[in-house]
Structure formats: structure tokens, C-alpha cells
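Lab intake sheet, docking and co-folding queue.

SAMPLE TYPE: protein with bound small molecule
LIGAND NAME: adenosine-5'-triphosphate
LIGAND FORMAT: SMILES
REQUESTED OUTPUT: full 3D complex as C-alpha cells
PRIORITY: normal
SUBMITTED BY: R.K., bench team

The fields below were copied directly from the construct record.
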Amino acid sequence: MKSPQPCYGQRNARLGTRSTPERFHYSPGPPYSDASTVRKRNPVAGAAKSVVGLFMTCFNPTETINSTNFGESEEFKPPSVASDATGSNRDRRRSSGRGVYGSPQNSTHEREPGSVKFTMEEIYKATRNFSPSLKIGQGGFGTVYKGRLENGTLVAIKRAKKSLYDKHLGAEFQSEVRTLAQVEHLSLVKFYGFLQQDEERIIVVEYVRNGTLREHLDCVHGKVLDLALRLDIAIDVAHAVTYLHTYTDHPIIHRDIKSSNILLTENFRAKVADFGFARMGADSDSGATHVSTQVKGTAGYLDPEYLKTYQLTEKSDVFSFGVLLVELVTGRRPIEPKRELKERITARWAMKKFAEDDSISILDPRLERTAANNLLLEKILELALQCLAPHRQSRPGMKKCAEILWCIRKDCKELSDSDFHSLSSNSRSYSVSEE
Ligand SMILES: Nc1ncnc2c1ncn2[C@@H]1O[C@H](COP(=O)(O)OP(=O)(O)OP(=O)(O)O)[C@@H](O)[C@H]1O
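RESULT FIELD (auto-filled):
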């Protein structure tokens, strides 16, 4: 695995702080019977290029700044083998071949994974009574603590805000537990169990120690992820989401694919987290094409068709994945309110530059302008363009996205193995004037 390069300039290097785009969580009126499904209609082909100009008439983002503490506590220093057996074994398994779908593994408890109910005593012990020094994050759901189970396993303990009567949070908790209990994949955070007692709602998942993708794109950890590594991360995410859409008993739509929900291991393998908004997709065996449901997700990542029609399909995750691809190559957040108007919606700006044959100008300024990077950039943007198609019928499925990304990686590897040396010695270091 390649090591990241040193960071040239830290755009948002406030260690221990994190910006989170506002999550949408509202009930926009009918049609919205959550369980209803609608019969198949003739697909309407959409022109992918018309994606330019379509973006988000819908967003008026606000940003909240949440305080986070990423300090390693002395008591929880890694890694005895037991302390991270799950994570490192998984990394080892995966290094033998990407794209392998996971199979259930043993839980840290004797009971089946997902059915594990923790006691308050176990949680207090694991978090040293929710010690502020073990707080590692804060999200819409509540506060996240680092903890250690009795058997030595490091875990992330997500404690819901105490709002017993908050229907949304209650539903989010149920949804996360239900979904996590059903899934097992190398690129999804592993679920250890939960606690539901009086006003407490707690979820215990695998601790992923290298922070979120967003933090890495912001250089919070002081290194720049090179483009090949970013491609690997996109492939991991594509595999995880393909698994959710295709290989679970019933399709699961994540609904909140975004860079702050992608956690990275020490080897820069990605794990998709946060299933608070996940829900079952339509049952295609019965001919249903979508579910009609209230809109949930995060500003900047939301599928405009879902936003307009309340019709949810797996392709809404594909749209969010397209936004993520643009985020990966530009390093920018999906919405950048402080920039000039034409650059505020990053995907719109990037797709316009791509259509004008000026992709190189949107490459993250921290990345080198080399022939190999330019090729990668073009190919990733081509896929992003398809994912961001205004109509879901024109977007590829997630499995197709994963296959395309595999091919991109293969092509780039071949280029770097053969032509790349001559290409690069022939010199094309693109000189790009930053706007
Ligand atoms: N399994 C984990 N391992 C390590 N750190 C984690 C884990 N889960 C969450 N975190 C940390 O806690 C932070 C908050 O996570 P959480 O999922 O509650 O919210 P979020 O996704 O960042 O925001 P939002 O709820 O608005 O989507 C994350 O950004 C990450 O820094």
C-alpha cells in the first residue's frame, strides 16, 4: 500500500475539529407512505451531459462545527494482537484480493453478532464512565467514544442524544441496529451489539483508527492521499455499497454515503459507517421499482430526483457516490459556500470543467499534475458524470461502478508499469493555473 505524501498546505488543519454538512431529515408531505411501493414504468433515458446545471436548486447548506478529540489514550494504546484482531485480520484477508465479499465472523461475545445486548455496566467499563478523554466524535445521532471491551477489543461506542421522545432519533437507532445486524462485509464497520435501556440508546461497532476520509481530504492528519489511494478508497466503498444493494437478503439503501461516513484503517482501507438512515429498497421480485419515502440524507449528496419525487432507489446511493468521486479528485466539499457562485456546488463546477475538456484545473491542488494523474482524473470524472445523471435510469448500478473503477485501476497500473516511464520522462507535468 502506498504511503500518503506530505501535505503541501493544510487548508483545514484545525486538529480536532470537524465540519459536517447539515443532514436532511424531514417529511415533505405526500406521497409518503413509507412502505408503499410503485409498479414498474418504462425507463426514460436521460442525457448524462445535461447534468451540468442541474445541481441542487435544492440546497441551502449550513455547516455545523463539532468538536472532536482524536487523542490516543494511554490506556487504549494499540495494538496487542487481541486488541485489533478483527481489523487487522480483515486487512490481511483483503490484501490477498480486493472485492471479496465478507462472511460472518465470530462476535466478541459468544452470542451471534447483532443480537448482542450490552449491559450498562459493560459500557461504563469500556468507556471509563464516558470519559471525555475518550470522546472521538459527535454526529447527528449523538456522541462517539472510543472504548475497550473486556476481551480487549477496541470499539467505537455511539451514544444517542438523550431525547427519549424524539421519534426521528428513535427510528434512526432502530434502523442502524437492524441494518448493522444483517450485514457483514470487509468494507463495512463491524457491528458488535447495542444497548437500549431507559433513556440510553447505544451502538457498539468496530473502532476504525485512522479517522474519516473527509479529515484526510482536509489534511487534518498532515498527509496528502495520492490519487491512486483515493481510487482504492472509491473501490472499497463501491464494493461495500454493491454488497448492500445486491448481496444482502433484501437490498439495503444506505442513504448517507459521504466522506465523513467513510472511515479509514491504518492501511487506508475504507469502511462505510453510519446506517442511521439506511432502509430497505423495493422488492424487485414483485415488480416494484422504488419505495416512496421521506427524504433523508446530507445536503450536497442528495439525489435530486429523490428530493423531487420522494422515490427512493439504489440509484440514490449511486448519485451520492458520484458526489463522493468528485470530492475525492478535487479534495473539496460538495458544497463550498465561501467560493464564488459558479464554484459553490463542487460537482456542478467539476462537471462543467470536464465538459469543457479542462478537467486538470479541478484536480486537488495538493496532487501532482502528472500524465498518470491526469488519466486517472479523466476516467474517474467520466464515471462521476454517469453517476450524477439527473434521472436514475441513466445512472449505472453500483456493481457496474465497482467494475469500471477496477478497470480504471488496471489501466493505470498498466500505464505506470509500461508506458508511464517513457510518458513521464517525456515530461508532461501539466502546468495549470489555479482559479
Ligand atoms: N467506528 C468508528 N471508529 C472510529 N471513529 C468513529 C467511528 N464511528 C464514528 N467515529 C467518529 O465519530 C464521528 C461522528 O460519527 P457519527 O457517525 O456519529 O457522525 P457523522 O457521520 O460524522 O455525522 P452525521 O451524524 O451528521 O452524519 C466521526 O466523524 C468519526 O470521527
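REVIEWER NOTE: Residues 18, 20, 23, 68, 136-141, 144, 156, 158, 189, 205-208, 212, 260-261, 263, 273-274 surround adenosine-5'-triphosphate (CB under 6 Å).
SIGN-OFF: pending second check by T.M.
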